[in-house]
Write a structure and sequence with these properties.
It is built from 18 helices and four strands. It is mainly alpha-helical. The protein folds into two domains: 185 residues, Growth Hormone, Chain: A, CATH 1.20.1250; 232 residues, MFS general substrate transporter like domains (Growth Hormone, Chain: A), CATH 1.20.1250. The chain starts with a strand and ends in a 6-residue tail after the last strand. It comes from Babesia gibsoni. It is a multi-pass membrane protein.
């Protein structure tokens, strides 16, 4: 276990508020596109294939350019990088609210993904700079809980306004323009106030860790990260562990084919996000408590247990068909438990990554994981579930409204979706469990021993 000397930074209460405000806005923004797709179809005449291109180019850009921002975050002060990206994103959102030309929208979506890609490495860097390993899980988890609240808020508010006319304009345009204004305001506040309390404004734009980082080339830093066994296991965990998000893409459709109304199907799916909020706010404290009890195996051990809970809850949920178009109490419990298990990403995987990578390379390390793990995950599981439903379990494409379909066709499609989600979920979760067992062997060896010089916590 290599020892690492760390000088921790102290962020004040306002910086803490802004940190979570950014997470809320990020979640709210990323949820706008899927919610507004029907509004785009009606007002702009876009086809489903055109809409899927908008979503794909944005998401792939978010993943693909992440290392660029990771390097910037490691070299420059976080508030400068984040403020610049947020202000640009605010302008892009306003332009998206005014756009009607499809090629122009595709270009703006690429630019939107480019600037949104900066947020994950910045947020990761701030926590690793300001918190010891004993409390990182709590802060990552709370921030993820706020992120989930942002997605829930975006779902209910935007779905209400997107199809309406506001001041003579389509509601979705109003939503994007207001979103852009919010980014601009918070971006300016981040520039002035999201800085360590001992930082003198305007003295230097380089990070305090940049002098160390400049001694190594980007290639050397990258190779050092890629030689860490724990890093590669975390990549596998990200690929396999993102399956619940792929499942959510089909969950609403499954509930609709099972006879639930659109509203009830949406509420049932949102229950997963509610479980994620509960799991994030409570789970981070539990995870950090386990880490304090055993710094080698505590965090990994509780993580393995959480993934087992995911396996059990998802298996029960998807093994039992919905009867009489009714979601029962045990379905809601299983959905909440499934959502609560999402805490493993912020509460366990982020602190584990922070512990095995030098402090001056945190932004780059997170970015590499998002590229190497995130892109294959997105490109694999969402289409795989759809492919299995059609080819293996007899899902039949139809343009009929669900309520007008014959019962046999509805049952066939519901069963096909349920079984495809079940098999993909079970296999990927077993892979995640095996990966966590592997972390029990690599993490104690790769973790860097902290030598904390100054420990002033990020104010709660």
């Amino acid at each position: 276990m290599e020892e690492e000397k760390r000088i921790m930074k102290h962020y004040g209460p306002l910086a803490f508020v802004l940190y979570h405000a950014v997470a809320f806005l990020n979640a709210y923004d990323t949820q706008l596109l899927p919610i507004c797709m029907r509004a785009f179809e009606v007002s702009l005449g876009l086809s489903p294939s055109s809409l899927s291109i908008l979503a794909t180019v944005e998401l792939m850009t978010i993943m693909g350019v992440c290392p660029f921002w990771g390097v910037l975050v490691d070299l420059y002060k976080c508030n400068y990088v984040q403020s610049a990206s947020m202000v640009v994103n605010g302008l892009i959102c306003i332009l998206l609210g005014c756009a009607s030309s499809y090629p122009y929208m595709v270009f703006l979506r690429i630019m939107h993904g480019f600037v949104l890609s900066s947020l994950a490495p910045v947020m990761h860097k701030i926590i690793t700079d300001s918190r010891s390993s004993e409390s990182q899980g709590t802060y990552y988890s709370i921030n993820y809980g706020v992120y989930c609240v942002g997605r829930i808020a975006s779902f209910y508010i935007t779905s209400t306004l997107a199809m309406k006319s506001i001041l003579g304009y389509c509601g979705w345009r109003f939503c994007y323009i207001v979103m852009g204004c919010a980014w601009l305001i918070v971006g300016v506040l981040v520039y002035f106030y999201m800085r360590p309390t001992d930082d003198t404004p305007g003295v230097r734009i380089f990070s305090a860790d940049a002098s160390t980082n400049e001694q190594r080339s980007i290639l050397e830093s990258t190779l050092k990260i890629l030689k860490t066994g724990t890093f590669w296991i975390l990549v596998v965990v990200m690929i396999a562990g993102d399956t619940p998000f792929a499942m959510l893409v089909y969950m609403v459709l499954y509930f609709q084919y099972s006879g639930l109304s659109d509203v009830n199907a949406g509420v049932a799916t949102a229950t997963v996000r509610f479980g994620a909020v509960v799991g994030s706010f409570a789970g981070g404290y539990v995870i950090d408590a386990c880490h304090k009890l055993n710094k080698k195996y505590g965090r990994i051990g509780i993580g393995t247990s959480i993934v087992v809970v995911r396996l059990v809850s998802s298996t029960i949920l998807l093994s039992i068909p919905i009867v009489n178009a009714t979601i029962t109490w045990h379905h809601y419990i299983e959905l909440i438990l499934l959502g609560a298990t999402l805490v493993i990403t912020p509460g366990i995987e982020r602190p584990v990554l922070a512990a095995v990578v030098p402090i001056e390379n945190q932004g780059l390390a997170l970015s590499l994981i998002r590229v190497i793990g995130g892109m294959p995950s997105y490109a694999t599981f969402v289409p795989l579930i759809g492919f299995m439903a059609e080819r293996a379990f007899g899902y039949t494409k139809t343009k009929e409204l669900v309520e007008n379909m014959e019962q046999e066709l509805r049952d066939t499609n519901a069963t096909a979706l349920r079984k495809s989600m079940l098999y993909v979920m079970v296999v990927s979760t077993i892979i995640t469990i095996i990966s966590y067992i592997g972390l029990l062997f690599t993490y104690p060896k790769d973790a860097r021993k902290e030598n904390v010089v100054s420990s002033k916590p990020l104010s709660p």
